[in-house]
UniProtKB/TrEMBL annotation:
It comes from Stagnimonas aquatica. This is Malonyl CoA-acyl carrier protein transacylase. Residues 10-315 form the Malonyl-CoA:ACP transacylase (MAT) domain. The active site is at S95, H204. It is an enzyme of class 2 (transferase).
Length: 317
């Protein structure tokens, strides 16, 4: 592959869901409806109907959001595969999206991944009761400054960086009193903005260590193959081939920070110039725009951008 056409697929995580997601693309790509139908059959409930018509409150329940987003991402990947022979240099998924990337790389089967992420959502929600924790984005401070800000919290509750998303954007996880303190004091301590994000569970922090141990048991019973396309893991922005190492990274990811900035920098360092967001929303292409100068960005939920990416990467092997 010429460097000019080196491309990577990025798979979104929780927060990118919406009722009716991928509706426009589904009009031209049969793989969308087919994949939702397959997911509904595996899970034993009408996931396709929930995605199509809601209600939003039900779709936003973590145990439903995670399989819905996995199905959406895999649907877009299958639609792309049906139209293109272009092979990406690598794959990466943000948090939940790492499972979608591993399905695309044929490391984990779609059915197994659906069951895993539904369990993952249930374990996450059970780990911290509703209202006792959450997440907030800190804008305008570098990674080290956010870590120092968290360390300044005078209480005993947990407050810690959870998602290193892009230069100047770090999402922090914590218990509710600590987040309230951060929202009240963050700007005075140098942040340009501090805002709650739509997660009722404080992910990627020590509060989910027990949930990670339970998830590890399910992963141990799941068939995992060496990926056919490199997948960069959230844990350390590195790819893995050994199935046991992949299982360990997926479990550890639940209670350790997402190293997304490092993942994007690693891909850019390998010559990736075209970035394709494989699923609903434009969150990840937005983060790449803040991280990589001159990036060519495609949010594949948009039929026009889907077609533009196909045209640009036509004939690339």
């Amino acid at each position: 592959m010429s460097e000019a056409h080196a491309h990577a697929f990025l798979f979104p995580g929780q927060g990118s869901q919406s009722v009716g997601m991928l509706q426009a693309l589904a009009g031209t790509q049969p793989a969308i409806a087919e994949t939702y139908a397959e997911a509904s059959e595996v899970l034993g409930f009408d996931l396709a109907g929930l995605v199509r018509a809601g209600p939003k409150e039900e779709l936003d329940r973590t145990e439903n959001t995670q399989p819905a987003l996995l199905a959406a991402a895999v649907a877009v990947w299958r639609a792309w595969q049906a139209r293109s022979g272009a092979r990406p240099l690598a794959l990466a998924g943000h948090s939940l999206g790492e499972y979608s990337a591993l399905v695309a790389a044929e490391s984990i089967s779609f059915a197994d991944a659906l069951r895993l992420v539904r369990l993952r959502g249930q374990l996450m929600q059970a780990a911290v009761p509703e209202g006792q924790g959450g997440m907030a984005a800190v804008i305008g401070l570098d990674d080290e400054a956010v870590a120092r800000l968290c360390a300044e919290y005078p209480g005993h509750e947990l407050l810690t960086p959870a998602n290193y998303n892009s230069p100047g954007q770090v999402v922090v996880a914590g218990e509710t009193p600590a987040l309230d303190w951060l929202l009240a004091n963050g700007k005075a301590k140098g942040a340009r903005m501090v805002m709650r994000v739509g997660m009722s569970v404080p992910s990627h922090c020590a509060l989910l260590k027990d949930a990670a141990a339970q998830l590890a048991e399910a992963l141990a019973a799941t068939a995992v193959q060496a990926p056919k396309i490199p997948v960069l893991h959230n844990l350390d922005a590195a790819p893995r081939q050994d199935p046991q190492e992949i299982r360990a990274a997926l479990a550890a990811q639940l209670h350790q920070p997402v190293q997304w900035t490092r993942s994007i920098q690693a891909l850019a360092g390998q010559g990736v110039g075209h970035w394709l967001e494989c699923g609903p929303g434009k969150v990840l292409t937005g983060l790449v725009k803040r991280s990589v100068d001159g990036a060519r960005l495609y949010a594949l939920e948009d039929p026009a951008q889907f077609d533009a990416a196909l045209q640009t990467l036509k004939g690339v092997n």
